Amino acid sequence: MLNIKELLDKVKASPYREIVIRAPHTGVVEFAGLKQGDTVRGPGGDYKEKPGTLLANLTREKNKKPIPAPEKGVIEAVHLEHEGQFVEAGEPLVTIKHYLTRKEVIELILQEALYLFRAPERAKYYFVPEVDQKLKVSGKRSVKVHDGMEILIVSRMKRETPLAYTGPDGIIYSVYFGRGDNVDEGGPLIGVCPEDQLTVIQDVVARIQSEWEEEE
Known about the structure:
Elements: H1 4-13, E1 16-22, E2 27-31, E3 39-40, E4 54-60, E5 63-68, E6 73-78, E7 86-87, E8 92-99, H2 102-113, E9 115-118, E10 123-127, H3 129-138, E11 144-145, E12 150-156, E13 159-164, E14 170-175, E15 182-183, E16 188-193, H4 198-211
Antiparallel strand pairs: 1-8, 2-4, 2-7, 3-6, 4-5, 6-8, 9-16, 10-12, 10-15, 11-14, 12-13, 14-16
């Protein structure tokens, strides 16, 4: 039986996620003057078209590329030893402590609470027509699945093959891909909730939505 209280306590004890910003390619680093404890913002705008706080610039062959913050948070560390130095791709430059949003907390709990049916290979995935129609008309929690049920179509290199669900019986609670999206091997496709756990999970989601305070 899922211990929701234990999961919530675990998240509350450490309501942060550390984001390590690495050099996207080789180049010479020039930091933007930020220090430990400074607050940074993530991308803004309706379409996230406004970049986050500038963390550093990386210059390669006289081409300067800005490195913005991907999420809002607080600077945990700046690797100033790289200032003015040439670094390899993947070198850690800045660490940001990101306070989890309400949506992220719910997603964390759901990833622990649900059975995740994962992609067997990198490909595009589609629901079979009857499942797709039911999802569109009645919503995610209208579809019951059982082991061996063909629910998806795998589309790769112009071939399409059916994919049967393997796992416990339950209801589709979450869908983790969009139509036409490429999903990496091992990436979650759907989250399945046993019917007897549905009320418990809905209660905890409602609790997080009402209790979790987001940082400004």
